Amino acid sequence: MAAIPDIIRAELEIFEDVFKGSVQSQVPLLDRIMRYIVRTRGKQMRPMFVILSAKLFGDAKQPTYRAASLVELLHTATLVHDDVVDGSLERRGFFSVYALWKSKVSVLVGDYLLAKGLLLSLNNGDFEILRIMSRAVKLMSEGELLQMEKARLLDTDEDSYFTIIRNKTASLLAAACAAGAYSTTEDQESAERMREFGEWVGIAFQIRDDLFDYNREDAGKPTGNDIREKKMTLPLIHTLSQCDRTTRKELLHILRNRNRNRRAVDRLIREVQAHGGIEYAQQRMIEFRDMALARLHEFEDTPVRKALEELVRFSTDRRR
Questions:
Q1: How far is it, in rounded angstroms, from Cα 72 to Cα 45?
Q2: How far apart are CA 158 and CA 299, in angstroms?
Q3: Across the chain, how many H-helices and E-strands are there?
Q4: pLDDT tens for residues 148-160?
Q5: What is the pLDDT of residue 42?
């Protein structure tokens, strides 16, 4: 993925300035936390998708940089809130905001980031981009709550799984691509084409993430984190649909009652591996990746298209 920033290096520098300016605060504590968040952010894949989606149709404009900043603000807000909900003390190898400043401050920081994103768009008249992103936030909340409900009932089937990840994960990446396209075209059809592209990439990305729980070749050993949280992801869902009734009952018992017992979790992982759950999930991941690549191939072969293709492949080939 090293070559991608070279293609949009200048645009990423402008985006950084816009983003840093958008989170500044006159409240010393808040400004200190914002500087910490800026310093510990991740790969910024979503802003890259915004900028590259914009450049697929023309040169990036000021609405492009504001759209990229809005995506990053909303994404960061959801991560800060997620860490409170999950009690997570670490984020990307750094202490989380929750670990350093606890629940009340973290919730307020997340709210502040959401408000700054809204104001960034409203103050500049980016109403359609704001509509695109607001829909994504609604879907993310619905997806998260549906996943929590399904984890309680342990009745997630494949249709429910795809609804959850389409809403919870893929909707933000879909909105990022749609907003990027709209920022340079102001064309609803172009935005919708790129929204679908981003959704397919986001689904493939999430399946890849789910596979880390089960696959030894990536992490050295399976993590079992989703199992401990009673999340029924695609490898397990497929296994439950293929195994006999007795095994299914045993696996659901582990998920419900022994999900923090290492030996029991290892047993569940072995059953998933034995019943082809990993291979099935990989196959579905590749299907969505190839749908996204096919959409890109509708456009002229340019360095921007190649960069987007590389980002798509990184989403499914990454080792963490």
A1: 9
A2: 32
A3: 17, 2
A4: 999 899 999 999 9
A5: 83
Phi/psi region, residue 42 (left: phi>0; alpha: psi -120 to 50; beta: rest), is: beta
Q: What is the pLDDT of residues 243-274, one digit of tens each?
A: 999 999 999 999 999 999 999 999 999 999 99
**Does residue 82 contact residue 89 with C-beta atoms inside 8 Å?**
no
Residue 115: count of CB within 10 angstroms of its CB: 12
What is the rounded CA–CA span in Å between residue 13 and residue 203? 29
Domain at 4-211+276-317, CATH from 3.40.50.300, 1.10.600.10, 1.10.3720.10, 1.10.287.130? 1.10.600.10
Q: Which residues of the chain have pLDDT under 70?
A: 1-3, 216-222, 320
Instruction: Please identify which residue in the block is written with the tokens 């986001």.
Output: 202
DSSP output for 71-96: HHHHHHHHHHHHHHHHT--EETTEE-
| Domain boundaries defined on the chain | 4-211+276-317
Coil, strand or helix at 199: helix
pTM value is 0.94
Q: Which of 73, 68, 61, 41 is nearest to 178 (CA)?
A: 68
